[in-house]
Amino acid sequence: MNIRVKAIVLIFSGLCSLGSLNGQIPMGVTHSGQSTSQAPFPLTQYTELKNPAPTDEESWKDLSGTRCAWGDTYTRYKKEVNPHLNQKKIDIKGWKGERVAAQLVVSSAIDLDNVSVEIAPLTHSSGKQSISADRILKGFVRYVMTDELNKNQKGTCGPRPDLSQFDSTLVADPIDHLAAALPIKAKTSQGYWIRVWIPEDAISGNYSSDVLIKNNHEVIGKLKLTIQVQQRTLPQPDQWAFHLDLWQNPFAVARYHQVPLWSEEHFRILKTELQPYADAGGKVITVPIMHHPWGGQTYDPYETMITWVRKIDGSWWFDYTIFDKWVEFMIDMGIKKEIGCYSMIPWKLSFLYFDQATNSMKELKSKPGEQAYHDLWLSMLKDFAAHLKSKGWFDITHIAMDERPMPDMLKALKIIREADPNFKVSLAGSLHKELSDELNDYCIAIAEKFSEEMKTKRKAEGKITTYYTCCAESHPNTYTFSNPAEGAWIAWYAAKENLDGYLRWALNSWTIEPLLDSRFYTWGAGDTYLLYPGGRTCLRFENLVAGIQAYEKIRILKTELQTQNKTATLRKLERVLESFDELQLLKTPANVVVEKANLFINGL
Amino acid sequence: MNIRVKAIVLIFSGLCSLGSLNGQIPMGVTHSGQSTSQAPFPLTQYTELKNPAPTDEESWKDLSGTRCAWGDTYTRYKKEVNPHLNQKKIDIKGWKGERVAAQLVVSSAIDLDNVSVEIAPLTHSSGKQSISADRILKGFVRYVMTDELNKNQKGTCGPRPDLSQFDSTLVADPIDHLAAALPIKAKTSQGYWIRVWIPEDAISGNYSSDVLIKNNHEVIGKLKLTIQVQQRTLPQPDQWAFHLDLWQNPFAVARYHQVPLWSEEHFRILKTELQPYADAGGKVITVPIMHHPWGGQTYDPYETMITWVRKIDGSWWFDYTIFDKWVEFMIDMGIKKEIGCYSMIPWKLSFLYFDQATNSMKELKSKPGEQAYHDLWLSMLKDFAAHLKSKGWFDITHIAMDERPMPDMLKALKIIREADPNFKVSLAGSLHKELSDELNDYCIAIAEKFSEEMKTKRKAEGKITTYYTCCAESHPNTYTFSNPAEGAWIAWYAAKENLDGYLRWALNSWTIEPLLDSRFYTWGAGDTYLLYPGGRTCLRFENLVAGIQAYEKIRILKTELQTQNKTATLRKLERVLESFDELQLLKTPANVVVEKANLFINGL
């Protein structure tokens, strides 16, 4: 498909310079003229961008009214296509404490002005127990603008100053639990997501419900949903072993919702926006400890959470007010295993501070190896260590590095050790065997592989070992145009590789209008965020969580099987995991691999 | 004269944008290519700008060698002219503790490569006592570029973006005590200043000395100097009653000498630069309490000495590190009667602060009458009052205003009273009778006159009442093209009007190269400074000090005459003072009026 949405691209590009919190956008209205989630929070209604794809008339010719049927949770049903689904009844298996999901699709040949979905109580076959409504997340699967891989089909790295050079389409991704009802235009399809978080104390067995699809008060579809609750129990997310490190961007939240940074209002909204990360078992608190650790690569750059002040006698003064407030907030959210502090070696070796003498912001430009760099960071890290100890956070804090030239990293490490020999250090970068002992949390790209020996040694020493994907990978990935099952695949792969978890550099570095347009002026669409405003999750994120749940189930099952000496089953499980090979993803799509693997473990 | 120095003007204009301390000027070198006083401090040698005036050949035709003779202290002898002076012996009268001065002029028809001046010990006629060399200030009267009054001859207000539109000439002004010797080119004149600070404990009578003018080792002139020390004693400057308020600009000092603001080096240099102000009995410490109280009107704008930080909870935090250091320094210098704090009502109603949340400088734009303005200043002034009380400075501190619209001033006053009813307030502005009771220090322009009733009431209440001149006045004034005697006239006028003193808005708001070029891109040349770098004083400043000494002498004499009931003499004195009428200055130049008045009081 090669339909280009030039008009939108132009508006988008024209407003890229508005990346500051003081932008000229009128309060509560974004460049598309729609309200943001500012007032009242959250926005419950919004209008998607126009579908650049024409109606697939052929698919609609045999439908005169409306059809409702179950689809699957891996598919982005196209708005302009009738998918010809027929399944009226669905059975889903899950452990106690697990989240299971189903997607239904409404395809209509006629205009429907007010479609809503009702789920009757999910009642146990014995009639003795129901799953309460607050365990159910339901919402329309909305359409957002996406683009595509680079022209050479190799990932999506590099700038995209002219988005019209990329195929732009609407794809189903955000799960909009806030819109109670939506109109559905004639000859369009609309997905609807139902996720059931099985209570840990549920009795096992079948829970059934009728799902009613209505247009105003008229029932236009009725589907049967059965949740088959198994015997085993999945622990709560904060008990999960999977080391999930998705970088949070509170600056995007303040800008999008047009609230003052670090205000009560900001934190109130952050609680909503980051709840899905907590519910996914997020482990790491992202902390920029200096101005713009990654330059201005995101629409909302990361500002320092530690205030740097150069006093008139030339000495430094560091204030931790924001840092403390943010870390305490995140710990209260249940995210408390690690504090990742970026960065001693930022992409641009320039350190912005408030200079008291001149009452202005100044930059200290200095690089590892220089005396000024050494003195600055030694002074900063010593002060920081003392503060962390006073808060009881020293042991969870990691001085975090991105991949930088080896000599620079070694120089930085030396200063860290000089400041406090017990400082923990993390790196998301390339595989350097000689660095492994230094790094308490080490994350490498999927294309590189830790040796089994390294992984064993690191595990024995209590060190965290993970992998990441970014714009370099075509598959697996979590672009808005990716196969959503690749989200699940990512966590399965960690299980296969005996890795502790997964890192992604962007949980919510939103584009200017993330609900409408996931394209950005760098990288493939969706690369910069996995969550949508208003605490909205999406096909990509829900699949990732499903994969993490599988990782936890595998961990529990392995222990169980080992305890019970079920070596044959164990071997079968290993064989299933072997199928998670990223080089095979073009041949066998992720949803096929994931579905097959799920069937296996749900059968144990 | 209408000779224009276009080349210099162009360089000057082109560099006006370099007004920041981070300018691109190479260390220690200014735009003319000359060293600044940076290294080593202070600069002892510099080259004046080229004289745009041609040699006055007519005046030189009867001179073949070199002529040295006494001139007077009111005249700017022209470089290109032979003034035909003849006086070889000079007698100067002065009180014990008084500074008295004489100017000699070397006029040479031939090149002299290394002229210096030696003063033999000033010995009492009894031979019993000498005035030691450290009581003598001597130096060449250097030539600096100046311009002229506005074309309509009415003051010098308004911008001068194209200085070539104004007549530019070299004038004698700075007294360069640092250059031990200078070359004198053929057919030029060179003034030389000798100031003797008579010791308080000197015995009265005549002190004489030979003044030798040498070229290398050759004596080229010999003049006789006699100081006639009278019976009366002038107190030390810190005991003077004259309320001298010349606004200091430490920012210009840091920029010109290229030292970090508020560094030890900066204060070391400030001690030299501000000593003449202390020696003139300066009473007021100038304090900008917010960013740019007068916008960017000076080459080196006034930056706040109080650090304004907006914390993330929206509350304000004020830090007084710079304020304390500056005030303590000035008090140590002996300037401690008043702290003038500018400004609640700055020219641009915008308040710059460091915003901790966004790690950036932000402006709060708010004006009197608005809630935000009220809250900001109430919070600031309460905090400030508490700090001042803790330092013991509350009683000398004045919240200082420039002339602003009356409703704004009344609103500001209300907030000041709300913050602390005992805050002192000062205003340099127009005469508003209804404000007089509110203002502890009230200064109005020379053209306006306080009523005798107001002055009497204010004096009885211990309130300070002064006047000012600025660009509005053609005469009296202290431009580099002004008659230097107008400096003295200014203080005599205060005596005549029974005012407490005089205010001028600029003691040392230097131009880019104050030693070379006193022209600025606004106002008449010299308007922005009365002192030159290196602690150099000048004809204008020395005349001002002479006037202040006369003011003190008149004060002492009046008390003496009243005590002794010498009403006839008192009446004569009043009549002498009556001659200080600014409207007569075009008819009778200041030097004539001042000289006559001096003769009178020195005869008492």
Automatic annotation (TrEMBL), chains A, B:
InterPro entries: GH, GH123_cat, Glyco_hydro_123_N_2. The keyword Signal applies. Residues 70-214 form the Glycoside hydrolase 123 N-terminal domain. Residues 247-557 form the Glycoside hydrolase 123 catalytic domain. The keyword Cytoplasm does not apply. Keywords: Signal. Residues 1-22 form the signal peptide. It comes from the Bacteria. This is DUF4091 domain-containing protein.
